[in-house]
């Protein structure tokens, strides 16, 4: 069935772009909170005296002395928000022939960011398993064929992104049709009911649409 291509309005495009941005920011913030470590000021280093430790066998305490331990405190949400705000207004651009990991390593060495570079390593570093990458590449491979050789790299990337993120992006805005309602959505003009009682007039009309050679081949099974 052919569908007429409908051009999206500017308002709909704005809504879709906004929903994608919000979903990306939410996931990015979650990753940043996971990989962020407490800063040095949030770490309390204290010394255990001999009275604080439980009794040990022989002279182990005397051999190794007291221990210095660290007590981590919860991540401060304002650190994550501050880096996100800094990145939104940052005008730093990637250099020629610079990959994503090299770019974020340079940003980390500049001292302006400490959490986002770790997120970049988790997202863009080579994983130990290539199953997820192969699934994404297979989608691109099925789309980029000799008949579609004029697709730009940006369009291929965006199509792969939309294909792997259907949960929060629905471009078509089409509701799925239940299996028990499929027959009611088939136009009558493209269907022909094969009734038990022969209807010669309709059969003759159908035969007129086909050549006699095709009918004979169908009857003889050739």
Which characteristics define this entry?
222 residues; mainly alpha; two-stranded antiparallel sheet; 2 strands; 48% helix; elongated
Radius of gyration: 32 Å
- How much beta, percentage-wise? under 5%
The largest beta-sheet arranges its strands as 1-2
Helix and strand pattern? HEHEHHHHHHH
- DSSP summary, beta strand count: 2
The helix content, as a percent range, equals 40-55%
C-alpha end-to-end distance: 30 Å
> What sort of overall outline do the alpha carbons produce when their principal axes are compared?
elongated
**Which structural category fits the helices and strands?**
mainly alpha
- What is the average per-residue confidence, as pLDDT, rounded to a whole number? 70
Structure characterization notes:
It contains nine helices and two strands, in the order H-E-H-E-H-H-H-H-H-H-H. The protein is mainly α and 222 residues long. Among the domains are: 1-39 and 73-125, no CATH class; 128-171. The longest helix is centred in the first third of the chain and has 26 residues, at 10-35.
In summary, what is this structure?
With 222 residues, this protein is mostly helical. 48% of the residues lie in helices and 4% in strands. The radius of gyration is 32 Å and the shape is elongated.
């Amino acid at each position: 069935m052919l569908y007429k291509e409908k051009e999206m309005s500017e308002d709909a495009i704005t809504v879709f772009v906004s929903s994608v941005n919000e979903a990306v920011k939410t996931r990015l913030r979650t990753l940043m909170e996971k990989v962020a470590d407490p800063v040095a000021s949030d770490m309390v280093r204290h010394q255990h005296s001999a009275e604080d430790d439980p009794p040990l066998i022989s002279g182990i305490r005397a051999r190794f002395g007291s221990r210095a331990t660290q007590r981590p405190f919860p991540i401060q949400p304002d650190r994550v928000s501050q880096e996100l705000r800094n990145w939104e207004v940052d005008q730093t651009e990637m250099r020629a022939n610079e990959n994503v990991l090299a770019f974020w390593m340079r940003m980390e060495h500049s001292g302006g960011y400490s959490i986002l570079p770790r997120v970049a390593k988790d997202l863009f570093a080579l994983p130990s398993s290539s199953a997820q990458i192969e699934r994404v590449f297979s989608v691109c491979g099925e789309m980029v064929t000799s008949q579609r050789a004029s697709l730009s790299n940006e369009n291929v990337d965006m199509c792969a992104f939309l294909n792997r993120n259907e949960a929060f992006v629905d471009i078509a805005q089409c509701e799925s049709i239940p299996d028990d309602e499929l027959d009611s959505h088939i136009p009558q003009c493209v269907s022909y009911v094969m009734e038990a009682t022969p209807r010669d007039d309709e059969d003759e009309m159908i035969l007129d649409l086909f050549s006699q050679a095709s009918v004979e081949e169908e009857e003889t099974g050739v």
